Amino acid sequence: MTGAGRVSLVGAGPGDPDLLTLRGARRLGEADLVLYDALASERMRPLAPRARWFYVGKRACRNSIDQDVLNRLMIKHASRGRHVVRLKCGDPFVFGRGGEEVLALSDAGVPVEVVPGLSTATAAPALAGIPVTHRGVAHDFTVVSGHLPPGHPDLLTDWDAVARLHGTLLLMMAVENAPAIADALLAGGRKPETPVAVVCDGSMPGERTVLSTLGSLAGDLERDEVQPPAIIVVGDVVAVARPEHYNDRRG
Amino acid sequence: MTGAGRVSLVGAGPGDPDLLTLRGARRLGEADLVLYDALASERMRPLAPRARWFYVGKRACRNSIDQDVLNRLMIKHASRGRHVVRLKCGDPFVFGRGGEEVLALSDAGVPVEVVPGLSTATAAPALAGIPVTHRGVAHDFTVVSGHLPPGHPDLLTDWDAVARLHGTLLLMMAVENAPAIADALLAGGRKPETPVAVVCDGSMPGERTVLSTLGSLAGDLERDEVQPPAIIVVGDVVAVARPEHYNDRRG
Lengths: 251, 251
What we know:
Two copies of one chain form a homodimer. Chain A is an alpha/beta fold and 251 residues long.
């Protein structure tokens, strides 16, 4: 590794450029190359006037190119002295594979930093007026990836234990498997009338919230034609929110 | 309610002004009055040149003045046409009482918005090099307030259920009750050798990380004289991190 090249893993937040951090914005301004994984991030181009932009993603924030190829791309450009910004939707360390990228880069001797970003898991509910904790209602919350259905052999999450929790559940990448997840939670003892909010396209122009319950979630998702990306909020905090009074957004 | 007054609940993030969002910084620039609850936030004063600053907090992000008094203060100033920024450490809706403030303000007819901030729960581990999720290690994480000890009558958290989870635990406001919480997790089946990292003063000049295990946590906290604020990370993701290679911070 020669030169002053380095990689910044920058959390882009939920999508609105306004929700990037000051440090993240400055890193974009310094970047020679931006590798981005969400189309939403294109709206951040004005913050990176010097940089080439290269798309490495697809919807739902997963990589379209192989992770090894991506790692080699970052190492190659940093080794040539470039400042590479790996712009990741949400937070790099919340289901972002940031840990894997940091290990690959540090193994290659490339200086790397992590600039945290707003995780969509909490930011999308906040923008929809839903507090993930609330005194007397929920003193804990759990963020779970729903990219694998309950029962899948590679699953690390114990859905029985999750069902027993009293706090708020925030399900990411869970639209496709939501019916199976709702069934697992009901089988684990959660009540069918548990309030659910599905926050779609959080922070983006098409943002909308679908209200439901655990028992009717599968049908409501189909009826409202919910597509990823969306955050599914399960718990009594959904009933605390009064969106009609709420976000008075003036940009 | 008359005039164009309003309240913005702005998440300040973990403390470093650089980790504020662009929207949060703009709201500070527009503010007439800033009500802040963490001394760390004073470093954000240059972002609010027009505003009066009024301290309503104490360490560990809890209010020193009564919540009702604080709500009335916000309502009074907004009713006089002022733009009030309620600057809250971390995220307003993650143990920030933001939900209560929104309800009080909307009941009074005061326009209110929430500007999400980086929660210290995930940002402090990220800055210390610890991914809260990691492929093959943890596909979920749970954020719990430790301000009440296990067994307390007002407790909403089911520590038995929390102990059964396979994912990462992030304990906030838990330094004081950490020995009792570690005992509860061990009693619930977690192994004494479970890795633990205590990230103290995340993002601040005095930031440091104390490595421990669940079985030795109580002694290590005492030996290292750990004081709040700190985030306690419990789980195998702690062993993924290699802080020595890690954050190359250049400001």
